[in-house]
Amino acid sequence: MNKKGRLFVISGPSGVGKGTLCKKLVKKHPELSISVSVTTRDKRSEDIEGVTYFFKTVDQFKRMIDENGFLEWTIYNGNYYGTPIKPVNDALDCGKDFILEIEVVGALNVRKFFPDAVLIFIAPPSFEALRKRLESRGSETPESIASRIALAEEELKLKDKYDYIVINDNLETAVSDVENIIIKESNLL
Ligand code: 5GP
Known about the structure:
The chain is of the alpha/beta class. It is 42% helix and 21% strand. Helix 5 runs antiparallel to helix 6 (142-156).
């Protein structure tokens, strides 16, 4: 019998280190696939089209919504972000485990369509640590940092709705915590 893959949703406030953590995880486990989201936010210098995101205009994004192209989408900090549905279904149908790295509201919405999804919340050791990380990225304006911190306060209130909470105090430890969760919950590893 063919086994379906399992969907893992890695979420938490902006700046908590979800992206770095996921990159390390996929490098260690190339058998895991990771979603490339669509966004309308401005491209940063480190962004690569089709690798970090697919960059679209608001009109293009809205067309994808109308065509039911997203598993979930949200407006975060004034920009649209969404997970294309097709790669998720294709991977799961082939028995591949699939990872989404998305913000908190979208993550909880995933559960409506994939009740079996494993939701992992990555929490900062403190707000101060989160602020420092956002500042050190150098990619955000002071206004954007302030609004991301304000959003983080709301996002942290939702952490108990998740299956697992991992504190990203030390990156290597957090990666191995998430790895252990995936090994425990996965159909394949
Ligand atoms: P950033 O602008 O820093 O790349 O991303 C901002 C936030 O949007 C991050 O928390 C990131 O995880 C989240 N995000 C990225 N892609 C998606 C998506 O497809 N859906 C949702 N709901 N959030 C996303």
